[in-house]
Structures are given as structure tokens and as C-alpha cells.
Specification:
Number of helices of chain B: 7
CATH class of chain B: Alpha Beta
Number of helices of chain A: 8
Radius of gyration of chain B: 23 Å
Strand content of chain B: 15-25%
Number of domains of chain B: 1
Largest interface: A-B, 51 and 62 residues
Helix content of chain A: 40-55%
Shape of chain A: rod-shaped
Distance between the termini of chain A: 110 Å
Number of strands of chain A: 2
Structural class of chain A: mainly alpha
Strand order of the largest sheet of chain A: 1-2
Number of strands of chain B: 11
Structural class of chain B: alpha+beta
Oligomer: heterodimer
Largest sheet of chain B: 4 strands, mixed
Radius of gyration of chain A: 33 Å
Order of helices and strands of chain A: HHHHHEEHHH
CATH architecture of chain B: 2-Layer Sandwich
Amino acid sequence: MNLSYRLRLLIVVLSIVVLAGGGLLFKQLLLPDSFGVYGPYRADAIAEAALVPIRHGTNNSCFKCHPYEAKSHKKGRHQTISCEFCHGTYADHIADGKKIGTLPVRKEKEITTLCLRCHNTEIKARHEEVIKTVAMPDHLKDQHVKITHNCNQCHYVHAPLKYIIRAKQITGLMEAGS
Amino acid sequence: MMDRRSFVKKVLNGSIAGSLYLVWPMGGDSLETPEEIPGIKGKEYDILTQEFAFIVDVTRCIGCGSCCVADKREYNVPDGNYRTWVERYVKGFSDNIYVDSPHGGLDGYQHPRTDIDEEIRDTFFVPKLCNMCKEAPCVQVCPVGATFISPDGFVLVDEKRCVGCAYCIQACPYSVRFLNPITKTAEKCTWCYHRVRKGLLPACVEVCPTGARKFGSMKDETSEVYKILKGPGVLTVLKKEMGTFPALYYKGARREVI
């Protein structure tokens, strides 16, 4: 082979251009759109993460259509409890402003189980200033009711002290208005 | 006094209005909720200027597991995997620590532990979730750039890009990641990024009955987390020596937790 100096130079330059260009093109094809806008990742993934459907509403979204429950729930000691914890998620109930399903209402022993999730004294990690706890069945015995009673037979679940205070006022154990 | 004619008229009007009320849809916007994180709803979300912090108050956690239930429902997390969970620490008088978390706290803690022989000194609950590290080990190890820290400080997973190599699951010092058995991609707590972007609190914060979980903007000087973080109280982060600089702070966490 007796190639001139110029031809050899051309071959070298051309191969550099072809290899580098091809590499760049290859990289462009492999990289997804919006890669590298904020860093070495797809910027569109942020927008996609923000599009996950919301399943939990807030208590206020429930109160809009359930004013009776809202009235006592907002006043009672249970005002910080989320409706959706006991009844299920907003998304199972409402879609596009219309009712699509009925949420469960807890009954009987289910209620006691739910109450004791938080109010059980036996779990010795619940401070008095955070939550009032009871020991079962001692509490039922102390109150002189049947040991088979469920919590909601005395306590209204949305405002647990509502009827207790009322009963005390009627029997004169507590002054009205206090 | 009302005469018969006007009475009948009023009743008819009422029944028409009542039946309309029954069939009328309750407004087009299904999630017309008050703004919980001020300055986000209805405004252009500037991803470059936002910063958030999460505070867990261990002294207020009662281990009810509301957060775990809400989390599972919000994302339909497959059984056996947890984006957030609550651990129970039991400390004996001989300084032995017993940690358990049955079902990640999903069923709550109905009964005390019966398998401990010694006298119990103390019990407390510690909620765990993603620490949103500023120097995240999971992000560093991802070979395909599927895990990243967004400009507003959230560590997120790009499901479309994740190849399911599980390297990040090994790398996470807090064990918050898992491989979703259905999609076969890595999944983790996102501090409910989709809710935050719409001005709502994360689902676990929303349902927490005692305020043990707090979330808010660090750019808003009136937010609770801002006041706590800039205030005099002692806050700790988990595994500080790892140098991950988490945005999740623990209030009242004991030596055994850290």
C-alpha cells in the first residue's frame, strides 16, 4: 500500500468523525426524552410521580355530605381521628363527584377491637397526656356493666364522651353547661 | 298563619328541590379540600424553590397503626411489603432491647408481648418511613438513573426506567425499599409526593390521631415543622454516622433507636 500522506490524514479524520458522530447519535437514541434536565434521570418521572391518583381525602371532604356526623365529630375528643381510618378511603366512595360505593360501618365486636387499638392500657407505651387508656375487662367491671358490652353501647364513637357527659348532667353528677 | 294554597306550594317546592338534590352531582371537583400545606394549591408549583421536612414525635406515637393502614390503602401496597411501618421497642431491666413489628403494625398492637421473661422497664413505638436523604446511597448505586433526588428534595423511583436489580434495596441503610412483586420494580415511601404537589398532607400525617407525624414546608415560616426545626428542641436523625443527611427528623427518639 502506497497511500499519500493526505489520504491517510483524511482516513484518520473521517474515522474520528464517523465514530464520534455515531457514538453521539447512539447515545441520543438510547437516552429517553427529558433525561438530564435536572440531573442524570428522566425529568418527566417527577411529573409522573405527581400524577398518582389520590385515594385519601380529608375529614373536611367527608363532612361536606355528612353534616350530622361532622357536627359531633368536630366537637368531640375524637376530632383528630380520620374518618377514613375506620370507614375506608374516599376513593372507594366517591369518584368524579358521584357516589360509587358504600363504605363499611363497623359493628359490635369490630368496634371494640378498633377502640382497643389505641385505648389499651396493657400496651405500656401510651402516655396519659397523649391518650386516655383503659384496661379490659376491668373498665367494664368498674362501670358495673356486663362484661360482654361493646364500647359503643356507652360511648358514641364520633364523640366518645357525648352521652357520658349528658348522663352525668341528668343525674346531677356534673353541672349542666360544664 | 299559612293558608292551604301557600302550604301546598311550599311542600311541592321542597320536594322538587329535594329530589334535585338527590340526583345532582356534588360538584365537578371531587377533591375540594382546604389547603393543608399553604402556598401550593392552585398555584404554579416551582420545583426549584420548594423544600420540605418530616418530623416524627416518638413521644406521641401510640402504635395505633393508622398510618400503616392509610399507607397501604393509598398505594394498594402488596401484602408483606411496607412503605411505612411502626416498630415496638421493649426495654427490659437488664437493658435488653426487644424489637418487633407484626405485619408492620397494620393490625395495630392489640396485646403486650408475652415472650419476654424479664421485667419490662419501658415500651415505645417508632414509626419508620423514607428518610429522604440529601446524600442518598440508593441514588448513588442505581445503574440506570431510575432513582433520583428531585430538585424539591424527594427521593423518587422512575418505574419506567427501573430494571429491578434491587441494588438500591441493599444500599438503603433504613430498609425502606422493597421490590414490588407485581411490577418487579423498586418501590418506596415518597412522602406522598402526588398529595404534596396538590397541597395535601401525606396520607400518614393526615390520619395520625395524636400528631406524632408532622410534615410541612421549610420555606414557610409559619409551618409547624419550620418552627420545631428552628426552635430549641433536640431533634435527631437515624444513623447520622452514615452521612446521609436525612430530611426526616425524630423528636424524643432514644439512644436505642438511633
